[in-house]
Amino acid sequence: MKILIIKLGALGDVINTFPLVVNLKRHLACEIHWLVAPLSYSLVADHQSVDKSILFDKKQGLQGVLNTREQIRETTYDLVLDLQRILKSGFFTLAAKGIRKIGFDKDRCKEMSWIFPFERICPSDAHKHMLDQYMDFAGHLYVDKEPIKWHIPRYRALDKIVRTLPKQYLVLNIGASKRANLWPPDYFAQLSRHVQDQFALPCVLTGGPEDQKAGKSIQEKGAVTILNLTGKTAIHELVEVLAHAEIIVTCDTGPMHLASALGSRVIALFGPSNPERTGPYKGIVIQKNMECSPCNKKICDQPRCMESITPEDVMIHLRVELKKV
Description:
2 domains; Rossmann fold; 12 strands; alpha/beta
């Protein structure tokens, strides 16, 4: 049996899809191909349950679409699963050669993608965790659901990054793809000082290139022991940084899901999003009760929900968690 997974999305979406792929591989003895975007490509390509990864880069424009269409039509699939539920993924699902093409039920589709003539899974709670919503496809295929496993690829031979890390450290993951999900840099700086004073633990900053300015500010205002890795880690390097940490304090973003999937201890700071749906599958969530939250805004001029979470709120949980070390 050959299966094509169409999940182009962000890092967190891809990570939350891994348990479904692990389950399908185990029970169906299948060959799994995966159409994915560049950000998550290396994790998908290196995953033990994925036999072939197909890259779609939207930056290549129409030529990229045509090249991708040609690649996915090289194989006839028994199953094509549209897990992205948008028009773009619907187009690729339609273009693929597949005996059965399966997508989400109408109420859980976006961008009117329910108009594509695919087989649809049964309706279910649209507010439950997205990982569990992806696992609904296993139920539709009568595949037994087993304990959740991600099998995140590990890169233990990656000595270059690991050698730069302190023996013990706490990660502050400062970035977020949505601006409304960001925690103030001054709060991260304060938290790093508290961590140094109370636990004698250095903090390692992680984030993308767009977070380097905030990282520099945190480094200047925070504890003297901060190691600033913002914009310096490729995805496979980030895996090892998160995997070796004592605990990760993070905004709502892809590396949050990565840390949770690695089995690392996570404290996630939530404002505009619903953590029951998009929070860490395993971890602690800090979210203040606000009239306007969750609003799911990407940009907010008055992000009170995030600003109301104080460094001391985080320290309360850190004191409990670090006693377990």
